[in-house]
Design goal:
Chain B: This is Spore coat protein CotF. Chain B: Belongs to the CotF family. Chain B: It is found in: Spore coat. The structure holds 2 protein chains of 2 kinds. Chain A is mostly helical. In chain A, helix 1 runs antiparallel to helix 2. In chain B, helix 1 packs antiparallel against helix 2. Chain B has a domain of 94 residues. The relative contact order of chain B is 0.11. Chain B is mostly helical. The chains are: A mainly alpha, B mainly alpha. Chains A and B meet through helix 1 and helix 2 of A and helix 1 and helix 2 of B.
Chain lengths: 69, 136
């Protein structure tokens, strides 16, 4: 994948944010009692997991291409 | 140990009466936290999208942005239905936020863990021991 260094930094930022979100949703879900809210949070955990995998593979490509700090 | 507090505690957490509606109030807080995280995610993705040029990355970010917007719609609709969130009623939203503020202030005054809860010394090493964390 062709890329500029500033794109790497943007993706890095997004990945760091999504990591926090995934951890928070995963841990807070255990404290929620409402079944519908629990359900949406589970959806979020699964979605963020996939998104984070995508960002991770993008970053891995950047590292391989040499456009990473 | 000093148990004196300048600010008196009105709420007694050992009194079951104060646990009334607590799960619902907690759920409202978790939902609000969730909503603001999803909202921030959508904003972060839009910023990143306008900063990127490569078509592949733009396509990926656009997909994730759509997913984030869909999730935001879902959580806000749930919160409106549950009456946790009143985007059309500023008065109700204000009263609800003031109530959470008061409750949160009361909760923050509680001494939930008066004794030392440190687990230091119970493990054979710290998570950063391999990189000399204790010397850093």
């Amino acid at each position: 994948m062709k890329s500029a260094l500033h794109e790497t930094l943007e993706v890095h930022e997004l990945a760091a944010f999504k990591t926090i979100c995934l951890t928070t949703s995963k841990t807070m879900r255990a404290l929620v009692s409402d079944p519908e809210l629990k359900d949406i949070m589970q959806q979020d955990v699964e979605l963020t997991h996939v998104q984070l995998q995508e960002l991770n593979s993008v970053l891995a490509n950047y590292v391989q291409a040499g456009v990473a700090p | 140990m000093n148990m004196q507090q300048a600010d008196p505690i009105k709420m007694d957490y050992l009194d079951p009466a104060n646990a009334l509606n607590m799960p619902e109030m907690a759920d409202m807080t978790f939902a609000m936290d969730f909503l603001s995280r999803v909202k921030e995610g959508v904003r972060n993705l839009s910023v990143a999208l306008t900063e990127s040029v490569s078509p592949d990355l733009r396509a990926l970010l656009r997909t994730q942005l759509r997913q984030g917007i869909a999730l935001h719609q879902e959580i806000s609709e749930l919160m409106i239905r549950k009456k946790w969130f009143h985007p059309y009623g500023l008065k109700e939203q204000f009263q609800l936020d003031m109530l959470s503020l008061q409750n949160t202030l009361e909760i923050s005054k509680q001494r939930f863990f008066p004794d030392d809860t440190s687990r230091k010394g119970m493990f054979d090493r710290t998570p950063d021991a391999h990189m000399g964390g204790s010397e850093a």
